[in-house]
Amino acid sequence: MLWLLDALERDPGRDQLIDMLGRRVRALPLGRVRGVLHGTWLGHPVHPMSIHLPIGSWMSAAVLDLKPGRSRQADLLVALGLAGAAPAALSGLVDWAELRREQQRVGLVHAWANTAAVGLYGASLVMRLSGKGAKGRALGYLGLTAVGVGGLLGGHLAYRQAAGANHAEEVPHVVRDGWHRVGGVDEFPVGEAVRCVVDDVPVLVVRESGGEVHALAERCSHLAGPLSEGTVADGCVRCPWHGSVFRLSDGWNVGGPATAPQPAFDTRVVDGRVEVRLPLHEVPEAPYGSDAFTETSVDGHRPSR
């Protein structure tokens, strides 16, 4: 199974179709609804939550179908699942359009499986309402099988390929507490994004015209895009990969598809040197390593003492 899934990731045969569909999904005039569908208001993707209604309804209908005779409750559950499938599919589509190519290849087949499930359950409902209960139940079980295949692929996307995961979550757990020197003030041109490294964690540093210095985790929480290669404007930085926008002052995600904010660092300037640290509330309860001061240069090499 793992070999088949890996082969699916590597197969470029559907890439032209993926490009075409991706452009059309990104061109949909959704406005602010796009952010709602991504889950920026929720702090994580909406799609995994939205699939519970159709899956739960169809699974319950399958249990009721085990009883002999027609079950109007099962008919109602099949219809309810079909109604819930539309918003679940739309939220999944807007997320899929902003994924990496390997993730999109798996996601496309995931969508096909779920589309087949919707078609089978739609036919099942027609059969049920036409009095052909046996055929309706059979189509329902076929639809549930397609849902299972789609769920397998969705699990691969989420847990093997990390689609929808917060790619900056580990930062507070791997950066030691205390202040870290990242370079002299002159090494940070005003308004430009500069990449530094603290405890092997890339950090984005931006100095504003008034002298204030901001520092965020440099890898985008959406899919680990390099924020240091993005655009800095209006107190925010835009990811060059998928356009997520983060506020420099606190890392808040003001624009999707990212649903999680960037870890932000406290900053200070001491003797012409910029220092950063994790905010005290983000320091792990049992930090590893010593409490000694750590000095880190812009290129990530700690100078000898």
Automatic annotation (TrEMBL):
The chain crosses the membrane at residues 76-97, 109-127, 139-159. Pfam families: DUF2231 (PF09990), Rieske (PF00355). Coiled coil: none annotated. Residues 179-276 form the Rieske domain. Keywords: 2Fe-2S, Iron, Iron-sulfur, Membrane, Metal-binding, Transmembrane, Transmembrane helix. PANTHER family: 3-PHENYLPROPIONATE_CINNAMIC ACID DIOXYGENASE FERREDOXIN SUBUNIT, FERREDOXIN-RELATED. This is Rieske domain-containing protein. It comes from Streptomyces labedae.
